[in-house]
UniProtKB/TrEMBL annotation:
Transmembrane segments annotated in the record for this chain: 47-69
The entry's keywords: Carbohydrate metabolism, Fucose metabolism, Glycoprotein, Glycosyltransferase, Membrane, Transferase, Transmembrane, Transmembrane helix
Superkingdom in the source lineage: Eukaryota
GO molecular function (one): glycosyltransferase activity
Bilayer topology: Single-pass type II membrane protein
Region of interest (Disordered), ranges: 77-97
Any one annotated GO CC term: membrane
Cell compartments where the protein resides: Membrane
Family statement: Belongs to the glycosyltransferase GT106 family.
Pathway: Glycan metabolism
Name used for this protein in its record: O-fucosyltransferase family protein
Biased composition (Basic and acidic residues): 85-97
Keyword match Transmembrane: yes
């Protein structure tokens, strides 16, 4: 399928070329003198008819191909979920009703389309695929250095159990926070468990997603991790003895002192505590650097995906690149031995393989409905999103009743609206990505399906997803496991030549960009639009010149790629450029 895409694409370009030629033809006709027109028409009636048939045929073929692309890209069944919060990680509810295409920026889209056509013939040299700032490569991974004083206490204060909620990426954060807390409290950590949720419907446990032994051994100098509780604690009713600690007991982003005051006494008294839920329960600053480093080591070194996931992900990546060997440290870290490491010189590697951009398009129904923005779909869309909110976000509805309403226009100005596929495509074209660019779409259950994706695929038809790259039988072992599917997206995004996100608040996007910073050696660019700035630029959609649009988008993206040290309170998983995590050379 993916091989086919490439040929289709060149046809697509050809067709667009022909279409604009036919436009020229008709305008030159207008110049013919009226008096002569009759005779001229008689003479040429056959060729005119012929041209009309030909043009008609091309239009038909064109729309046929658009619909083929769309059905490939969006072949998902409709599911409805009972969600309590925003889901992130790539698996989301989806409605697949056929609707007419929705476009908000007709003018910019056609400017983008001509700009892309022009690029096919006059390729400009550009550095889209590179990091713009050289300093990026002066930061190297170093959280796995043996600390001079590992600080593992011989005597354990007791056992910490964790049942992490949420999807793959939220769980990852919870695991590494738990590792840090276990070290803080001189406790022994029981291998984390994952809660089954009605949203995710995924029964996967730690060992289905990560390599257990590896995790235990990488952290063994810092934290004791065991697979089972000792027999004397196994039969204890944790809740009855007061050792159950829920998110209501511990503040969001709590400080170490909160743990020492609240949790340590229970641990010392009962020998065990159980964190239930446990999302973002440990803040980033202030935190002793030993613990910060440990979190970083956990996230970037200790959590290796299970072989089954690495194997399928390496198939994915190899099929997009049409290349079989590892190219970077990111490949090696994420795909392990499933990506053979054939030593070869740089230019040889580049010649044999295809580049791709991975896009995490966070425009799924939950996100769209939650935002309360207007996406140009008119009354029917407003009603649909309102009823989605009523079913899935009762708390939000309650809150809205008692607060002052913010208009959709205001929300857009404030940068609170998720980017539509159309906006994402405009962004990529302003940055100069060509029509034929290979794009791996993560998540991919887009709200409005074809009606929304059409604007995107008209500019970028070479879209692939895990569903198009893997055969049904290759996907089968993952089908009921949303976290494992999300892990495939995680890897395909992290190892991409360029990663583009549409929402920097998303866990998947932020963890992936952290990985690219940590292991990318300054050569793994991430595109992170600033939604507020973009909204300002797009508010001029009906007047802005294409060149100005390009300039302003490029500046915005470059701003997001500046090489900065992690700011106070910022996530070390997302921004590992921090002395506890990376070393500056
Ligand atoms: C943990 O052990 C270290 C010594 O290794 C000690 O300084 C620290 O106070 C202990 N912390 C707790 C909470 O027991
Ligand atoms: C997935 O779930 C469906 C229905 O619940 C079941 O029929 C199918 O066998 C499951 N597939 C796997 C691979 O577990
Ligand atoms: C596009 O431009 C029109 C006319 O200036 C404006 O009214 C509209 O709000 C703009 N659209 C967006 C989404 O900013």
């Amino acid at each position: 399928m993916s091989r086919g895409d490439h040929n289709w694409n060149s046809k697509f370009v050809l067709l667009n070329g022909l279409k604009s030629d036919s436009g020229k033809f008709s305008s030159s006709c207008k110049g013919v003198h009226v008096g002569k027109r009759h005779m001229w028409f008689h003479k040429n009636v056959r060729s005119i008819a012929y041209i009309f048939v030909l043009v008609g045929f091309f239009f038909l073929l064109d729309s046929l191909m658009v619909s083929i692309f769309d059905s490939i890209n969006l072949q998902h069944s409709s599911t409805s979920k009972n969600s309590k919060g925003l889901k992130d990680d790539g698996k989301v509810a989806h409605t697949n009703k056929e609707k007419p295409p929705v476009k908000m920026y007709g003018r910019l889209l056609s400017l983008a389309s001509s700009a892309l056509t022009e690029k096919e013939f006059k390729p400009k040299k550009s550095d889209l695929w590179k990091e713009p700032y050289k300093q990026a490569s002066s930061w190297k991974p170093c959280a796995d250095r043996r600390p001079p004083n590992p600080g593992k206490h011989d005597k354990s204060n007791g056992y910490i159990m964790v049942s992490a909620n949420g999807g793959l990426n939220q769980q990852r954060v919870a695991i590494c926070n738990a590792v840090a807390v276990a070290s803080l409290l001189n406790a022994t950590l029981l291998l984390p468990r994952f809660l089954y949720s009605n949203v995710w419907k995924d029964p996967s446990q730690f060992g289905d997603i990560y390599q257990e032994e590896y995790f235990i051994s990488v952290l063994k100098h810092e934290v004791n991790i065991v697979k089972e509780l000792p027999p004397r604690l196994k039969s204890i009713d944790i809740e009855a003895i007061g050792s159950l600690i829920t998110d209501a007991d511990i503040a969001k982003e709590a400080k170490p002192i909160d743990y020492v005051r609240k949790v340590l006494p229970i641990l010392l008294r009962n020998g065990v505590v159980h964190f239930l839920g446990y999302g973002n329960r440990l803040g980033f600053d202030p935190l002793p650097s030993k613990l910060q480093r440990l979190r970083c080591k956990c996230n970037f070194h200790a959590l290796k995906f299970a072989p089954k996931i690495q194997e399928a992900a390496s198939l994915l990546v190899r099929r997009i690149r049409k290349h079989d060997s590892a190219r970077s440290m990111l490949d090696k870290q994420l795909l392990g031995n499933y990506m053979p490491n054939i030593p070869s010189r740089h230019h040889e590697v580049a010649r044999g393989s295809y580049r791709y951009l991975a896009l995490h398009l966070r425009f799924e129904e939950d996100m769209v409905a939650y935002s309360q923005c207007d996406f140009g779909g008119g009354e029917s869309e407003r009603k649909e999103l309102q009823s989605y909110r009523e079913i899935h976000f009762p708390l939000l509805i309650e809150r809205l009743k008692s607060s002052k309403p913010i208009s959709p226009e205001e929300l857009r100005k404030l940068g609170r609206c998720p980017l539509t596929p159309e906006e994402a495509a405009l962004l990529l074209s302003a940055l100069g990505f060509k029509h034929g660019t290979y794009i791996y779409l993560a998540g991919s259950q887009i709200y409005g399906a074809n009606s929304r994706m059409q604007a995107f695929t008209s500019l970028y038809p070479n879209l692939v997803t895990k569903e198009t790259l893997l055969t049904p039988s290759e996907l089968e072992p993952f089908r009921n496991f949303s976290s494992q599917l999300a892990a495939l997206d995680f890897i395909a995004c992290a190892t991409a030549d360029v990663f583009a996100m549409t929402d920097s608040g998303s866990q998947l996007s932020s963890l992936v960009s952290g990985f690219r910073t940590y292991y990318g050696n300054g050569q793994a660019p991430t595109l992170r639009p600033n939604k507020k700035r973009l909204a300002t630029i797009l508010s001029e959609n009906s007047t802005i010149r294409w060149n100005d649009f390009e300039d302003r988008v490029r500046k915005m993206i470059e701003e997001g790629q500046r090489v900065r040290v992690r700011g106070f309170g910022r996530s070390i998983y997302r921004q590992p450029r921090s002395p506890e995590c990376m070393c500056r050379t």
